[in-house]
Automatic annotation (TrEMBL):
Protein name according to UniProt: Transmembrane protein
Gene: clc-26
Family matches, as InterPro entries: Claudin-like (IPR009545)
Natural source organism: Caenorhabditis elegans
A matching Pfam family: Claudin_3
Transmembrane segments: 7-26, 58-80, 101-122, 134-155
Amino acid sequence: MADLKFLILGIFISIGFVLNIVGVVAPCFMVEKATADSKQHKCHAVNPFSSMGSSYDFASFALYTTVVCQFMVALMYGFIVYETKIKKRQYSKEILSLFYYFKWFFLLIVVLIALSFVLIAIKFQSRFNDNTVYLSYQSLLLITTIIVCSINIALSRRLVVQVARTIRQNSTHTANPFNFDTTSVYSISKN
């Protein structure tokens, strides 16, 4: 059961990873409508070194930090796959701690994306109200990333419980090899 949840978590990590990368790196985060002097819409990318103001710069930096967090989660997931599936090792306390880190990284991603939207809304509130500036499809990708990361938090919590139970069961069986429990691998059969 833990392996199925682990696989589902990997699928959702991949989906969140792609959504986050595309949502941050795509060229048009905010769109300014055409004015009298400019006949075209103007796109603003996520750029921490822009001339849009300090709150937009901090929001951009926060969004790039979410990409770094997604990379860290992908590396940790790859390490767990390497340890448990390739080397065929059982779940250990080190791997359990990585599942805890999953939860905190996903929570950090959710908070940073929400904070960046709040900062952008505060900075451009008057321009949002008169509809001269609006968010593009890129913002929808980041909102979807928030939803996927929330699902990942729930899956990580379930995996922590499942892996902790597995570790506890494995440690009780190795501590007492003469356990007469019939579900144990070390049980003695009655003839």
